[in-house]
Write a structure and sequence with these properties.
The structure holds two protein chains of two kinds. Chain A is mainly α. Chain A has one domain (about 10-500). Helices cover about 75% and strands about 0% of the residues of chain A. Chain A is built from 20 helices and two strands. In chain A, strand 1 and strand 2 (about 75) form a beta hairpin. The radius of gyration of chain A is 21 Å and the shape is globular. Chain B has a domain at about 270-480. Helices cover about 80% and strands about 5% of the residues of chain B. Chain B has a two-stranded antiparallel ribbon with strand order 1-2. In chain B, helix 10 packs across helix 13. Chain B is globular. The N and C termini of chain B lie far apart (about 65 Å). Classes of the chains: A mainly alpha, B mainly alpha. At the A-B interface, helix 15, helix 16, helix 17, helix 19 and helix 20 of A face helix 5, helix 6 and helix 7 of B.
Chain lengths: ~500, ~525
């Protein structure tokens, strides 16, 4: 058997510098934090922002690298690089949205920002994982930090309830994942992903241990990406959490969970995709339909965006069900990219409306916004249209890419169901636009956005991403496709060749 | 033929839209929007002048790679079908802006002009795109300003109308998106590369079952937009609640996008299925003609009368298209333009009366002839054009359509003629109740006649009605080559179907003949 010897282990330090940077940043904040008043926490936020920026730059340097480090525990390739960049952008935007929010709500900045960074660390770890234990480690690092973040509004009972609910269900789901990992280990004799893939590629398709492990892991990830029927925690957690944390969950947690989910299933369990793609077919239909239908009747914007996030997870799972198509991986990565910018932007607008102690998260709070704050309303309209899949925005091109991958895999009915679902979703996204533009009165006083440059910048970043990724999709599509190809171990083929 | 004309035509309005956003006072907003809308109008008229009437294929073509990974290109071109629809768009946008600046739109003029100009970009782009992806993008882009226009500046149950409009059209377009993607997938299997280019996709042979499903995907989207009976229910609401300019653009151009979609995409992509589906579509068209006319007759609201008359008139257009012969197609395209001019003018007139009285109830009027003679005369001309009086534009289109239909199906033509009669009936009856008789309401004695601005809006439309009614040649001669190209495709498909039919008969007859030989 594999005798563990230190000499045989390859330590490549350089590619994990982004992870180290984030860890150090979080520790620095913890150390200096207690000496700083809650009202002045913006300084801590800036430290966090600089940390993320540094990690972003360091990640850019590691692109093109394709190594297994720490004996295969970490897979440092363009796939991890792609996800790290998305996660870091999401973290940066989250921090940008938090600066004023945290100070206004008198949240303890040291704990808040360090937990954000630790959560980001966990997310990045999930994206870089080369074995199942690291995936678990990353998931836990991320989840525990986020459980705490959800409950940060200590005076708000909704927040505490959300945290408890999220924690209990989350812990439960982690158990499933761990069981799954154990069973897969039992079936294949290894926790390293590459050998798992080699093992399942040989005749493992009907191994009961493997199949059970696979199912357990599916449930575990299903919880984290909020797939139906494992979505129950989502609306409550999204509604109760501080809004920047909600954005962080809707984007960061989801992207990271998909990073792990995709790497395990699409790449390393790809050889047995026949065993799980039918399950994902059902999961995709359920997730899309339930998410969209329940979103129709929401009157709270955070709950509506929660169900919308569920629905979008459904579209992504549709892409996973299309595993047999070469386009699928690239399409999902591209979709996640567009989804991240759009969703972050939408939450940033929600935050812009809030005031200390007042949530203002009902959809009717948006009434008449176009008259009082045309810029905010226009930005929100762009985000809603992108989520609804109106061209030429990122959300549309993402759906286009996903649907064409699924058709490529022959999933015609699934795509038709998805198209009908998109039509349903148009209703509730349009509702926000109608409230802002077509209805009058009930205008709320919004704190001047110009006085909150970080928040403004977050919204601008969201708009820029949503529009640019949509109108000039080629570079992002290319990057997504080659990032996925890097993980799949195939040489980064020319993108046009890949599509054949 | 290269150049940048089509790009300029499409994107000048978008630039103008952002230019309008920079303006601050109301006067300069309206003026700048109007001026910006004149540029594309001038370009489209220039293109009409230099358009080569003998060329059937696309002119002024522009093509740049856009998303090479998917074989998507920015491919624009204009042919005899799109040329006139583009001119109709640019003209009516200008006139609508001119009209709306005169008091019809009281709130948020900046946003209104912005929406109108963005709408223009969407409409023109959808008419000029030859790449299916590009087409879909514009097709959806034009939805957004339209529903915001209904939602913001509409009347009455505007929110309900907005949602109904959005949901109907989005449902159709998303199914069309699936069909587009499937078609492209099939094309890759056949041609070996991904392409969204229309001429390439024309060449893709499909199995009969595939073609039927795909045709359905496209046809539903377009039929909703036309709208054909029974998916027309969004139209009366949207039309009635929309602001005047919105109704004008909806009726004049947006509905034409549905018919245009049949001509440009659904029929040439799947000619065999189109031939098979002819009886269904002719039946639906005839039902639409009669149904629209009958419902229009009992409407108490002037705008609803015009809205249901659109259902009836668009039924004629669809009837002409599915006659699939030169007369029918010529008439259909001509009728598309007629309907744009006449119904656009009708909606403008209804808007003018609404601004004066803040009601559109037929029973609120009566005897207007005495107080607003000029208005009554203009209304008369427009109404006569709408019901197809010889000498005005409506006649040419309806005549050609009925001729084409008669050649295809005598029965359909017989019923459709009834629609013409009913059309005259409800229009003239409405006219009589509004204009003639004694003045029953005192307020009607003091309303003002057409203002200079309103005359300026109506004069070009009335001139067009006369011109198109008396001298259709310059229009027909430019659209015919392109329509003949379409008919060639249909003819080839018919030949294939006939050959198959003969083969089937022969195969069936063979055993019998063998028996007889023995």
């Amino acid at each position: 058997m594999n005798q563990f010897t230190l000499a045989a282990v390859n330590f490549a330090w350089l590619p994990i510098l982004p992870l180290i940077a984030v860890t150090l940043g979080a520790m620095v904040i913890m150390l200096v934090g207690p000496g700083i008043d809650d009202e002045d926490s913006a300084g801590l936020g800036l430290i966090a922002l600089m940390t993320v920026l540094a990690a972003f730059v360091l990640t850019l340097f590691t692109l093109g690298e394709n190594t297994l480090s720490f004996g295969g525990a970490l897979a440092l390739d363009d796939y991890s690089g792609f996800f790290e960049l998305v996660i870091l952008v999401a973290t940066a935007v989250t921090i940008g949205m938090s600066l004023d929010y945290v100070a206004d709500e008198r949240i303890a900045g040291a704990e808040y920002y360090s937990l954000i960074l630790f959560a980001a660390l966990g997310m990045m770890l999930m994206a870089t994982a080369g074995d199942l234990i690291i995936i678990f480690l990353g998931l836990e690092t991320m989840s525990i930090a986020v459980y705490a973040l959800v409950g940060f509004l200590r005076r708000d009972p909704r927040s505490s309830e959300a945290a408890l609910k999220y924690f209990l269900l989350g812990a439960f789901s982690t158990g499933f994942l761990l069981y799954g990992i154990a069973l897969v280990y039992g079936a294949t004799g290894t926790i390293r992903l590459d050998p798992v893939r080699a093992a399942v590629a040989t005749d493992m398709a009907s191994n009961p241990l493997l199949l059970m492990g696979l199912g357990m892991m599916l449930i575990g990830f299903g919880f984290k990406v909020a797939a139906v029927p494992f979505h129950m925690w989502t609306p409550d957690a999204y509604e109760g959490a501080p809004t920047p944390v909600t954005a962080f969950m809707a984007v960061g947690v989801k992207v990271a969970a998909f990073a792990g989910f995709l790497r395990i299933f699409l790449v390393h369990l790809g050889p047995v995709s026949a065993q799980w793609s039918a399950v994902l077919w059902v999961l995709a239909v359920l997730t899309m339909s339930v998410g969209n239908l329940i979103a129709l009747v929401q009157s709270n914007i955070k709950r509506m965006l929660a169900y919308s996030a569920i629905a979008h997870a459904g579209y992504i799972i549709l892409g996973m069900a299309a595993a047999s198509s070469h386009q699928a991986g690239g399409a999902i990565l591209y979709y996640l990219l567009g989804y991240s910018f759009t969703t972050l932007g939408a939450f940033a607008v929600v935050i812009a409306l809030e005031r200390a102690g007042e949530a203002r998260d009902r959809i009717s709070d948006f009434r008449g916004l176009a008259r009082t704050h045309p810029g905010l309303a226009a930005a929100m309209a762009i985000f809603m249209l992108s989520l609804a899949g109106v061209p030429p925005l990122a959300g549309f091109v993402g759906k286009f890419y996903l649907f064409s991958a699924a058709l490529n895999a022959g999933l015609v009915w699934l795509v038709i169901i998805a198209a009908l679902n998109s039509a349903i979703s148009v209703y509730y996204y349009t509702r926000v636009i109608v409230e802002m533009y077509a209805r009058e009165g009930n205008e709320i006083d919004v704190k001047r956005i110009g006085a909150r440059p970080a928040l403004l910048l977050s919204i601008v970043a969201g708009v820029a991403g949503t529009v640019l990724i949509g109108i000039f999709p080629q570079p992002y599509m290319g990057a997504s496709a080659s990032a996925f190809a890097a993980a799949a171990g195939r040489p980064a083929l020319k993108t046009t060749a890949m599509l054949r | 033929m290269g150049g940048f004309w089509l790009t300029a035509l499409t994107f000048v309005p978008l630039l103008g839209a952002f230019g309008v956003l920079m303006q601050s006072d109301e006067e300069s907003i309206w003026r700048s929007a109007f001026v910006f809308s004149l540029i594309p109008l001038a370009i489209s008229l220039y293109l009409f002048a230099v358009f080569d009437p003998h060329q059937a294929s696309y002119q002024f073509v522009e093509r740049y790679s856009w998303i090479p990974q998917f074989g998507i290109s920015y491919h624009m071109g204009m042919d005899g079908i799109s040329l006139f629809l583009v001119i109709l768009t640019t003209l009516l946008i200008s006139l609508s802006l001119l009209y709306s600046g005169g008091g019809d739109i009281e709130t948020r003029p900046r946003e209104f002009c912005f929406m109108m100009l963005v709408l223009e970009t969407g409409l023109i782009g959808a008419l000029l795109a030859i790449d299916l992806f590009l087409f879909y993008v514009f097709w959806e882009v034009m939805l957004v300003p339209m529903y915001l226009m209904i939602g913001i500046w509409g009347h009455g149950r505007k929110i309900y109308a907005t949602f109904k409009f959005v949901l109907f059209t989005m449902l159709g377009s998303l199914l069309m998106l699936v069909a587009i993607l499937y078609l492209v997938g099939a094309a890759r299997a056949q041609l070996g590369h991904l392409t969204f280019d229309l001429p390439d996709l024309y060449r893709v042979p499909l199995s009969q079952a595939e073609a039927r499903w795909l045709f359905a995907g496209f046809a539903i989207a377009f039929a909703i937009k036309v709208p054909m009976w029974p998916v027309h229910t969004w139209l009366p609401d949207a039309h009635t609640e929309a602001p005047t300019a919105g109704s004008v653009m909806l009726a004049a151009v947006m509905l034409k996008m549905g018919a245009y979609g049949f001509l440009r995409f659904a029929i040439p992509l799947f000619p065999e299925v189109a031939i098979e589906a002819t009886p269904i579509f002719m039946a639906l068209a005839v039902i639409g003609i009669i149904y629209g006319a009958l419902v229009a007759m009992v409407q108490p609201d002037l705008k609803r009368i015009v809205a249901y008359s659109s259902v009836s008139h668009l039924g004629f257009v669809m009837l002409g298209i599915f006659a699939l012969n030169p007369q029918g197609l010529d008439g259909a395209v001509y009728q598309m333009l007629n309907h744009g001019v006449s119904t656009g003018a009708l909606f403008l007139l209804v808007g003018m009366i609404y601004v004066r009285r803040h009601t559109r109830d037929v029973s609120e009027f009566g005897g207007l002839w005495k107080t607003v003679p000029m208005f009554a005369v203009v209304f008369m001309v427009v109404m006569l054009s709408s019901i197809g009086l010889p000498g005005l534009n409506g006649f040419v289109g309806e005549f050609l359509i009925l001729l084409g239909t008669f050649l295809k199906s005598q029965r359909a033509a017989e019923v459709a003629v009834l629609g013409v009669v009913l059309g005259a009936l409800y229009m003239m009856w409405a006219y009589e109740r509004v204009m003639w008789g004694p003045i029953t309401k005192a307020v009607n004695q003091t309303i003002k006649d057409l203002s200079k601005r309103e005359i300026a809006v109506m004069v070009p439309l009335i001139a067009l009605m006369l011109l198109m009614g008396l001298y259709p040649r310059p229009l027909l001669s430019r659209m015919e080559p392109s329509l003949n190209l379409l008919l060639d495709r249909v003819g080839a498909a018919q030949a294939r179907l006939d050959a198959e039919h003969t083969r089937t008969i022969a195969a069936l007859a063979a055993p019998v003949r063998n028996l007889a030989d023995k």
